[in-house]
Each structure stands twice: as C-alpha cells, then as structure tokens.
Design goal:
Length: 144
C-alpha cells in the first residue's frame, strides 16, 4: 500500500504536479496548520484545491495531523530540539487517535501527505506517516 509525502517549498507547480502524477496520487492530505498564507504560492488552499481538481486528485485538509501553534513556534524559533519536537508531536498524534481515520484517508486511494518543508527529514509529515505505519505494516512510504 503506497503512501507518499511531499513538501511544496522550492518546487514549481509543474514539478509538484508531475511528482503526484508519476506516483498515481489521487488524494492529497494537507497536514499544515495554516494553509492560507500568501507565502504558500500555488499551495495556498484555494489555489491548491483547484489545481488538484484539474488533476482529478482529491484534497483534504486534516488539522488533526498538524502540530499545535505553540509546538510549531517552538521548533521554528529553535526553542526545542528536533528530538523533543518529534516526541511531543507523536504523543499528540496518539492523543488525537489519528489512526482511527486511517481507512478513511487511505481507502482505495494513493494518498500524499502534504506540508511546506522541502525535505522530509525534519518535517512533521514524515512523523505522521511513520506513526500511521505502526497501525498498518502494509504501508510503503515514498517521499516525493
């Protein structure tokens, strides 16, 4: 069961759309807390949902997969190290019981979990899919 992730930073709309199409993604799950910032460019909620509609890709915004405002601020301002962010965020996912929606998010779709970070190494989308994999070991994770 293929599950992908992607960040839109430093990507053109063409490379973003091509990556989704090459991996047969048919559902994008937006894991951002804020998805309406002008800085998001083509990934601003209304623009992104329109582009995905043209590509025949479903769009979901899932706030349950986003860090809290306080946690996001703490990591961005380097008030906490990555290891601490990771533990707090994974605990938050467990507290929210996000795994209960796993079947809804995956179903018969190839989902792609979206956030802004260019690379997944220090990004919460990586933590989300790794957490979900604990509940379904058939998940194969590919970072686009």
């Amino acid at each position: 069961m293929l599950v992908t992730t992607i960040g839109f930073s430093k990507k053109s709309l063409r490379s973003f759309a091509t990556a989704l199409q090459q991996h047969n993604v048919d559902r994008v799950i937006d894991t951002r807390l804020q998805n309406t910032s002008q800085l998001a460019g083509f990934a601003k909620k209304e623009d992104l949902s329109y582009v995905l509609e043209l590509l025949n890709i479903d769009y979901l915004h899932e706030l349950s997969l986003a860090p809290t405002e306080e946690l996001l601020k703490a990591i961005k301002q380097k008030e906490i190290p990555w290891a601490e962010f990771e533990k707090i965020f994974v605990d938050l996912l467990a507290e929210r019981k996000v795994e209960a929606k796993l079947d809804d998010w995956l179903g018969d779709k190839v989902p792609c979990f979206l956030c802004s970070e260019e690379k997944p190494h220090h990004c919460h989308r990586k933590l989300v899919v790794e957490y979900l994999k604990e509940f379904d070991n058939r998940i194969e994770i590919v970072h686009l």
